[in-house]
Design brief:
eight-stranded mixed beta sheet; globular; 210 residues; alpha+beta; Nucleoside Triphosphate Pyrophosphohydrolase
């Protein structure tokens, strides 16, 4: 399947019922009871992310970033570009703005295909809306060092491998006052451990594409 066919296929699938919680639960690290619930009762903070696709040497890639190893719940984790919604902007605008600010892709190059199911993150009380977008040409990355330690370019085929989902003990909140060691499912992508909300979002995208 070439890149244009892939993009059209994603457009079609986004207009069909999404896998939702049946895909989320495969990578949910904790609080599975929050997958089928009324998120509004938690009064969550709203955020959005972007699963950004592009072609490089005839292969389809998507982008992940590694966060700086700051003192907090999500310090050092691998995630999508994204962040908290600002006043007077839509969640789509948030995803595009954050992608531009964090990895330097020009907003005019980002084309939005649609969105996946929302994901609630209990430790930080965020409700994330994940969007899928793409560019017609290979982007130039210019990461903000205050927000991004590394830009990770992942081939889409890596996500679709049968043995991509694994389990391991991970220390959650290592630099907080309440660290915990828990056994969690994760995605092994280029020998990177991708888990938590990012893993949950990618699990739905993976099920949608398989």
């Amino acid at each position: 399947m070439n890149f244009n066919e892939l993009i059209n296929n994603i457009k079609t699938r986004l207009n069909e019922p999404l896998p939702g919680s049946s895909a989320h639960i495969k990578l949910a690290p904790y609080r599975k009871d929050t997958l089928n619930t009324d998120f509004s009762k938690y009064n969550p903070k709203l955020a959005s992310t972007l699963l950004f696709l592009y072609q490089n040497n005839e292969k389809t890639n998507f982008v992940l970033i590694q966060r700086p190893d700051y003192s907090g719940t999500h310090g050092g984790q691998i995630s999508f570009p994204g962040g908290k919604k600002e006043k007077n902007e839509s969640l789509i605008e948030t995803a595009i703005r954050e992608t531009n600010e964090e990895i330097g892709i020009e907003t005019s190059e980002i084309k939005i295909l649609g969105k996946l199911s929302q994901v609630y993150v209990p430790p930080s009380n965020f409700l994330i809306t994940p969007y899928i977008g793409y560019a017609d040409k290979m982007p130039i990355f210019n990461p903000d060092p205050s927000e991004v330690t590394k830009v990770l370019e992942i081939e889409l085929n890596e996500l679709l491998k049968e043995d991509v989902i694994k389990e391991k003990i991970i220390t959650v909140g290592a630099k907080t006052n309440n660290p915990m060691n828990i056994n969690v499912p994760y995605l092994d992508l280029n020998n990177q451990v991708v888990w938590g909300a990012t893993g949950v979002i990618l699990s739905e995208f993976r099920d949608m594409m398989c």
